[in-house]
Amino acid sequence: MARGRRSRGRRATRDQFRSIAGGLGGFGDCMSSEWSIRPGCEVSLSLSDSSISLRGEVISHDPSTRFIVLRVPSSSGDKNRWDIHVVNLGNVEQFSVLRAAREELLEEILPLDEEKLQSRCQQSFEKKKRSLLSFKKGVSPKGQKLFQTISKTIEEVTWAGKTIVVMNRVSILPPYGTGNIRGVTQEFKEDDAALSHIRKIVEKHVRDQEGCEEI
């Protein structure tokens, strides 16, 4: 079995990899060599200082950071699923290219939409930022959980002391129940659409929390 595996792909130690990369001016320059790593090729590798070995298909490779993304058969045994591994090539002890990428596959790979990636990154950042804002010193866990629930669907959620303020129109006072919802101003009407919407969110949140406590 060992001979058959070597015949399908050449094997190099980590030091050999570094030597090749240095001679070519960086790991990214190996793209034009026999050590090329291209989406669609099949590789096997072992991580240094670890018993982990992987064999799978490369679905992405970033020469500048020396990271590759591998798709390997699911550890669950489900043939319709895959496990995804992000590997730092700096931690690779042994590496083999078992099968080169098919040219027709390379033609199908489309360039990344950088604007869309930037947009998703910004959205993720804002979501994380709102999550961090939910933690307020001196506020009960009940209030923090309600803040998190509301901020999942409404961006304009802030603290005014221990009071949750939504869209500068609705305030929710401790202990943060449905009976603690108020309009921010005296002119605020009880049938206001914003108040009604927030009340429904709070009611559902309270029911969900009560259900968790019963379990």
UniProtKB/TrEMBL annotation:
Superkingdom of origin organism: Eukaryota
Pfam families: AD, LSM12_LSM
PROSITE patterns the UniProt entry points to: AD
AD domain boundaries: 110-210
InterPro entries: AD, Lsm12-like, LSM12_ABD, LSM12_LSM
Record-annotated membrane-spanning stretches: none
Entry protein name: LSM12 homolog
